[in-house]
Protein backbone atom coordinates (compact mmCIF):
# COMPACT_ATOMS: atom_id res chain seq x y z
CA UNK A 1 0.00 0.00 0.00
CA UNK A 2 1.57 3.29 -1.12
CA UNK A 3 1.89 6.04 1.49
CA UNK A 4 -0.29 9.12 0.97
CA UNK A 5 1.61 12.30 0.13
CA UNK A 6 0.12 15.74 -0.43
CA UNK A 7 2.18 18.46 -2.10
CA UNK A 8 0.86 22.01 -1.76
CA UNK A 9 3.48 23.58 -4.02
CA UNK A 10 3.37 22.89 -7.77
CA UNK A 11 6.23 20.67 -8.98
CA UNK A 12 7.81 20.01 -12.37
CA UNK A 13 6.48 17.00 -14.32
CA UNK A 14 9.73 15.11 -13.65
CA UNK A 15 9.54 15.59 -9.89
CA UNK A 16 5.80 14.89 -9.85
CA UNK A 17 6.52 11.61 -11.65
CA UNK A 18 9.15 10.63 -9.08
CA UNK A 19 6.71 11.16 -6.24
CA UNK A 20 3.85 9.56 -8.16
CA UNK A 21 5.89 6.39 -8.63
CA UNK A 22 6.61 6.07 -4.91
CA UNK A 23 3.45 7.42 -3.28
CA UNK A 24 -0.28 7.89 -3.55
CA UNK A 25 0.25 11.50 -4.57
CA UNK A 26 -2.18 14.43 -4.54
CA UNK A 27 -1.61 18.12 -5.31
CA UNK A 28 -3.64 20.63 -3.32
CA UNK A 29 -3.26 24.26 -4.36
CA UNK A 30 -3.78 25.88 -0.97
CA UNK A 31 -3.74 29.36 -2.50
CA UNK A 32 -6.69 28.56 -4.81
CA UNK A 33 -10.31 29.17 -3.71
CA UNK A 34 -11.31 26.29 -1.39
CA UNK A 35 -7.72 25.05 -1.32
CA UNK A 36 -7.37 25.24 2.44
CA UNK A 37 -10.64 23.38 2.95
CA UNK A 38 -9.45 20.70 0.51
CA UNK A 39 -6.19 20.33 2.41
CA UNK A 40 -8.04 19.97 5.73
CA UNK A 41 -10.25 17.34 4.12
CA UNK A 42 -7.28 15.29 2.89
CA UNK A 43 -4.91 15.66 5.87
CA UNK A 44 -6.32 12.68 7.86
CA UNK A 45 -4.88 10.32 5.22
CA UNK A 46 -1.52 12.05 4.74
CA UNK A 47 1.75 10.47 5.81
CA UNK A 48 3.91 13.03 3.96
CA UNK A 49 3.61 16.72 3.06
CA UNK A 50 5.77 18.77 0.65
CA UNK A 51 5.58 22.49 0.00
CA UNK A 52 6.44 25.96 1.32
CA UNK A 53 5.12 29.45 2.05
CA UNK A 54 2.15 28.05 3.96
CA UNK A 55 1.94 27.84 7.75
CA UNK A 56 1.31 24.25 8.89
CA UNK A 57 0.04 25.10 12.37
CA UNK A 58 -0.38 22.54 15.18
CA UNK A 59 -4.13 23.01 14.84
CA UNK A 60 -3.91 22.02 11.18
CA UNK A 61 -1.50 19.14 11.75
CA UNK A 62 -3.75 17.74 14.49
CA UNK A 63 -5.94 16.79 11.51
CA UNK A 64 -3.11 14.55 10.23
CA UNK A 65 -2.70 11.72 12.77
CA UNK A 66 -0.73 9.59 10.29
CA UNK A 67 1.78 12.30 9.32
CA UNK A 68 5.41 11.11 9.38
CA UNK A 69 7.37 13.79 7.51
CA UNK A 70 7.22 17.31 6.09
CA UNK A 71 9.59 18.30 3.27
CA UNK A 72 9.77 22.08 3.16
CA UNK A 73 10.95 23.68 -0.11
CA UNK A 74 12.88 26.29 1.83
CA UNK A 75 15.97 26.72 3.93
CA UNK A 76 14.12 28.74 6.55
CA UNK A 77 11.93 26.83 8.98
CA UNK A 78 10.59 29.61 11.18
CA UNK A 79 7.04 28.92 10.04
CA UNK A 80 7.02 25.46 11.63
CA UNK A 81 6.35 24.62 15.28
CA UNK A 82 9.43 22.52 16.07
CA UNK A 83 8.46 21.52 19.64
CA UNK A 84 5.08 20.30 18.31
CA UNK A 85 6.74 18.31 15.51
CA UNK A 86 9.19 16.76 17.95
CA UNK A 87 6.41 15.76 20.34
CA UNK A 88 4.66 14.01 17.46
CA UNK A 89 7.87 12.52 16.01
CA UNK A 90 7.20 14.26 12.66
CA UNK A 91 10.38 14.78 10.64
CA UNK A 92 10.92 18.27 9.16
CA UNK A 93 13.33 18.57 6.23
CA UNK A 94 14.60 21.70 4.47
CA UNK A 95 16.71 22.62 1.44
CA UNK A 96 19.94 24.34 2.52
CA UNK A 97 22.99 24.80 0.26
CA UNK A 98 21.19 24.62 -3.10
CA UNK A 99 19.96 28.20 -2.75
CA UNK A 100 23.01 29.77 -1.06
CA UNK A 101 24.61 31.33 -4.15
CA UNK A 102 21.32 32.60 -5.61
CA UNK A 103 20.37 34.34 -2.36
CA UNK A 104 23.85 35.84 -2.11
CA UNK A 105 23.56 37.09 -5.70
CA UNK A 106 20.21 38.66 -4.84
CA UNK A 107 21.62 40.30 -1.71
CA UNK A 108 24.44 41.87 -3.70
CA UNK A 109 22.06 42.93 -6.46
CA UNK A 110 19.97 44.71 -3.82
CA UNK A 111 23.07 46.28 -2.27
CA UNK A 112 24.30 47.63 -5.60
CA UNK A 113 20.82 48.73 -6.75
CA UNK A 114 20.26 50.65 -3.50
CA UNK A 115 23.75 52.19 -3.38
CA UNK A 116 23.66 53.37 -7.00
CA UNK A 117 19.92 54.26 -6.97
CA UNK A 118 19.35 52.00 -9.99
CA UNK A 119 15.58 51.56 -9.60
CA UNK A 120 14.90 55.20 -8.74
CA UNK A 121 16.98 56.49 -11.67
CA UNK A 122 15.63 53.92 -14.12
CA UNK A 123 12.12 55.17 -13.29
CA UNK A 124 13.42 58.74 -13.68
CA UNK A 125 14.69 57.93 -17.20
CA UNK A 126 11.42 56.18 -18.08
CA UNK A 127 9.55 59.30 -16.96
CA UNK A 128 11.52 61.37 -19.49
CA UNK A 129 13.36 63.28 -16.79
CA UNK A 130 16.83 62.68 -18.18
CA UNK A 131 17.56 66.00 -19.79
CA UNK A 132 21.23 66.55 -18.90
CA UNK A 133 24.24 64.85 -17.29
CA UNK A 134 23.68 63.69 -13.75
CA UNK A 135 24.49 66.12 -10.95
CA UNK A 136 24.91 65.87 -7.20
CA UNK A 137 21.17 65.43 -6.65
CA UNK A 138 21.28 62.08 -8.42
CA UNK A 139 24.60 60.69 -7.24
CA UNK A 140 24.64 57.31 -5.52
CA UNK A 141 27.48 56.01 -3.37
CA UNK A 142 30.39 53.68 -4.06
CA UNK A 143 30.40 50.06 -2.93
CA UNK A 144 33.97 48.97 -3.73
CA UNK A 145 36.38 49.40 -0.86
CA UNK A 146 33.63 50.18 1.66
CA UNK A 147 32.82 48.26 4.87
CA UNK A 148 30.14 45.59 4.88
CA UNK A 149 28.63 44.47 8.19
CA UNK A 150 27.05 41.01 8.14
CA UNK A 151 24.56 39.95 10.80
CA UNK A 152 24.98 36.18 10.61
CA UNK A 153 27.85 34.27 9.03
CA UNK A 154 26.27 31.02 7.90
CA UNK A 155 26.30 29.65 4.36
CA UNK A 156 24.57 32.66 2.84
CA UNK A 157 26.54 35.15 4.93
CA UNK A 158 29.82 33.56 3.79
CA UNK A 159 28.75 33.62 0.14
CA UNK A 160 28.00 37.34 0.49
CA UNK A 161 31.33 37.91 2.28
CA UNK A 162 33.14 36.21 -0.63
CA UNK A 163 31.49 38.53 -3.14
CA UNK A 164 32.20 41.58 -1.00
CA UNK A 165 35.85 40.89 -0.22
CA UNK A 166 37.09 39.11 -3.32
CA UNK A 167 34.81 40.87 -5.78
CA UNK A 168 34.56 44.39 -4.44
CA UNK A 169 37.57 44.76 -2.15
CA UNK A 170 35.30 45.47 0.83
CA UNK A 171 36.24 45.15 4.49
CA UNK A 172 33.91 42.50 5.92
CA UNK A 173 32.89 42.72 9.57
CA UNK A 174 30.36 40.33 11.06
CA UNK A 175 28.55 39.24 14.17
CA UNK A 176 27.41 35.68 14.92
CA UNK A 177 27.23 33.31 17.89
CA UNK A 178 31.02 33.02 17.73
CA UNK A 179 33.98 34.11 15.64
CA UNK A 180 34.83 31.92 12.64
CA UNK A 181 38.64 31.93 12.21
CA UNK A 182 38.42 30.29 8.80
CA UNK A 183 36.17 33.12 7.62
CA UNK A 184 38.49 35.73 9.14
CA UNK A 185 41.37 34.20 7.23
CA UNK A 186 39.58 33.70 3.89
CA UNK A 187 37.94 37.10 3.72
CA UNK A 188 40.06 39.27 6.00
CA UNK A 189 36.90 39.46 8.10
CA UNK A 190 36.57 40.81 11.64
CA UNK A 191 34.20 39.38 14.26
CA UNK A 192 32.58 42.20 16.25
CA UNK A 193 29.83 42.43 18.86
CA UNK A 194 26.61 43.78 17.29
CA UNK A 195 26.89 47.36 18.66
CA UNK A 196 30.42 47.80 17.28
CA UNK A 197 29.46 46.13 14.01
CA UNK A 198 26.58 48.56 13.49
CA UNK A 199 28.73 51.62 14.20
CA UNK A 200 31.46 50.44 11.81
CA UNK A 201 29.59 49.70 8.61
CA UNK A 202 28.69 51.48 5.40
CA UNK A 203 26.42 48.60 4.43
CA UNK A 204 24.62 46.22 6.79
CA UNK A 205 23.28 42.90 5.47
CA UNK A 206 20.99 40.66 7.51
CA UNK A 207 21.39 36.92 6.92
CA UNK A 208 20.34 35.32 10.25
CA UNK A 209 17.41 32.90 10.42
CA UNK A 210 14.30 34.16 12.20
CA UNK A 211 13.96 32.72 15.70
CA UNK A 212 12.84 33.86 19.16
CA UNK A 213 16.44 35.04 19.62
CA UNK A 214 16.59 37.10 16.40
CA UNK A 215 13.05 38.52 16.38
CA UNK A 216 13.46 42.32 16.32
CA UNK A 217 17.20 41.87 16.74
CA UNK A 218 17.45 45.24 15.05
CA UNK A 219 15.18 47.65 16.89
CA UNK A 220 15.24 51.44 17.21
CA UNK A 221 18.31 51.42 19.48
CA UNK A 222 20.29 49.19 17.13
CA UNK A 223 19.28 51.12 14.02
CA UNK A 224 20.34 54.35 15.77
CA UNK A 225 23.89 52.96 16.00
CA UNK A 226 24.17 52.80 12.20
CA UNK A 227 25.86 55.79 10.54
CA UNK A 228 23.35 58.04 8.72
CA UNK A 229 25.10 57.18 5.42
CA UNK A 230 24.57 53.44 5.92
CA UNK A 231 22.43 51.24 3.70
CA UNK A 232 20.59 48.26 5.17
CA UNK A 233 19.94 45.07 3.18
CA UNK A 234 17.58 42.34 4.41
CA UNK A 235 17.41 38.95 2.68
CA UNK A 236 16.57 36.91 5.77
CA UNK A 237 13.12 37.49 7.32
CA UNK A 238 11.28 40.76 7.82
CA UNK A 239 10.67 40.36 11.58
CA UNK A 240 14.41 40.30 12.33
CA UNK A 241 14.02 44.07 12.03
CA UNK A 242 11.48 46.22 13.89
CA UNK A 243 9.82 47.47 10.71
CA UNK A 244 8.23 50.52 12.36
CA UNK A 245 11.66 51.57 13.64
CA UNK A 246 13.16 51.05 10.19
CA UNK A 247 10.47 53.19 8.57
CA UNK A 248 11.10 55.98 11.11
CA UNK A 249 14.88 55.84 10.54
CA UNK A 250 14.41 56.07 6.78
CA UNK A 251 11.78 58.81 6.94
CA UNK A 252 13.93 60.88 9.32
CA UNK A 253 17.03 60.54 7.17
CA UNK A 254 18.92 58.49 9.77
CA UNK A 255 19.63 55.86 7.09
CA UNK A 256 20.72 56.45 3.48
CA UNK A 257 18.53 53.64 2.17
CA UNK A 258 17.37 50.05 2.37
CA UNK A 259 17.17 47.10 0.01
CA UNK A 260 14.44 44.80 1.32
CA UNK A 261 13.57 41.38 -0.07
CA UNK A 262 11.54 40.42 3.01
CA UNK A 263 8.93 42.18 5.12
CA UNK A 264 6.97 41.82 8.35
CA UNK A 265 3.97 40.69 6.34
CA UNK A 266 4.26 39.31 2.82
CA UNK A 267 3.13 40.33 0.28
CA UNK A 268 3.96 43.80 1.65
CA UNK A 269 0.87 46.03 1.88
CA UNK A 270 0.58 48.37 -1.15
CA UNK A 271 0.15 51.31 1.26
CA UNK A 272 3.26 50.46 3.30
CA UNK A 273 5.35 53.60 3.95
CA UNK A 274 8.33 51.55 2.78
CA UNK A 275 6.94 51.64 -0.76
CA UNK A 276 6.62 55.42 -0.71
CA UNK A 277 10.33 56.00 -0.05
CA UNK A 278 12.53 56.46 -3.18
CA UNK A 279 15.61 55.29 -1.23
CA UNK A 280 14.02 51.89 -0.55
CA UNK A 281 14.37 49.09 -3.13
CA UNK A 282 11.60 46.57 -2.37
CA UNK A 283 11.68 43.12 -3.98
CA UNK A 284 9.13 40.27 -3.60
CA UNK A 285 11.12 37.68 -1.59
CA UNK A 286 13.02 36.74 -4.74
CA UNK A 287 16.19 35.52 -3.01
CA UNK A 288 15.97 31.95 -4.23
CA UNK A 289 13.57 32.67 -7.09
CA UNK A 290 15.54 31.53 -10.10
CA UNK A 291 14.43 28.68 -12.36
CA UNK A 292 17.55 26.65 -11.64
CA UNK A 293 17.53 27.16 -7.90
CA UNK A 294 13.82 26.55 -7.30
CA UNK A 295 14.04 23.31 -9.29
CA UNK A 296 17.09 22.30 -7.24
CA UNK A 297 15.22 23.12 -4.01
CA UNK A 298 12.19 21.08 -5.08
CA UNK A 299 14.47 18.19 -6.12
CA UNK A 300 16.15 18.33 -2.71
CA UNK A 301 12.76 18.32 -0.97
CA UNK A 302 11.63 15.30 -3.01
CA UNK A 303 14.84 13.44 -2.11
CA UNK A 304 14.27 14.28 1.55
CA UNK A 305 10.69 13.01 1.48
CA UNK A 306 11.58 9.79 -0.34
CA UNK A 307 14.21 9.08 2.30
CA UNK A 308 12.03 10.03 5.27
CA UNK A 309 9.03 7.93 4.17
CA UNK A 310 11.34 5.11 3.11
CA UNK A 311 12.73 4.73 6.63
CA UNK A 312 16.09 6.38 5.88
CA UNK A 313 17.39 9.43 7.70
CA UNK A 314 16.96 12.38 5.28
CA UNK A 315 20.03 14.36 4.27
CA UNK A 316 18.56 17.66 5.44
CA UNK A 317 16.81 16.99 8.74
CA UNK A 318 15.90 20.12 10.70
CA UNK A 319 14.76 18.25 13.83
CA UNK A 320 16.98 15.23 14.55
CA UNK A 321 15.21 14.83 17.89
CA UNK A 322 12.12 13.71 15.99
CA UNK A 323 14.23 11.04 14.25
CA UNK A 324 15.58 9.83 17.59
CA UNK A 325 12.03 9.73 18.90
CA UNK A 326 11.03 7.46 16.03
CA UNK A 327 13.91 5.01 16.48
C1 LIG B 1 11.28 30.64 0.23
C2 LIG B 1 13.10 31.26 1.58
O1 LIG B 1 11.34 29.44 0.92
O2 LIG B 1 14.20 29.20 1.46
C3 LIG B 1 13.71 30.07 2.21
O3 LIG B 1 13.73 30.04 3.46
O4 LIG B 1 12.90 32.24 2.20
C4 LIG B 1 12.67 31.20 0.18
O5 LIG B 1 13.52 30.42 -0.61
C5 LIG B 1 10.66 30.43 -1.08
O6 LIG B 1 10.11 31.64 -1.38
C6 LIG B 1 9.59 29.35 -1.04
O7 LIG B 1 9.86 28.34 -1.89
Please explain how this structure is put together.
It holds the Pfam family 2-Hacid_dh_C. Keywords: NAD, Oxidoreductase. It comes from Pseudomonas flavocrustae. Residues 108-287 form the D-isomer specific 2-hydroxyacid dehydrogenase NAD-binding domain. Residues 8-319 form the D-isomer specific 2-hydroxyacid dehydrogenase catalytic domain. With 327 residues, the chain is α/β, with parallel strands linked by helices. The chain folds into 2 domains: 4-97 and 291-326, Rossmann fold (3-Layer(aba) Sandwich); 100-282, Rossmann fold. It has helices spanning 13-22, 35-42, 58-61, 82-88, 100-115, 118-126, 155-168, 181-187, 194-200, 220-225, 243-251, 291-309, 320-326; strands at residues 4-7, 24-27, 48-51, 69-72, 91-93, 147-151, 171-175, 190-191, 203-206, 231-234, 257-260, 280-282. The strands form 2 sheets. A 7-stranded parallel β-sheet has the order 8-7-6-9-10-11-12, with helices on both faces. It has a 5-stranded parallel β-sheet with strand order 2-1-3-4-5, sandwiched between helices. β10, α11 (243-251) and β11 (257-260) form a beta-alpha-beta unit. The structure holds 2-keto-D-gluconic acid. 2-keto-D-gluconic acid (8YV) binds next to loops.
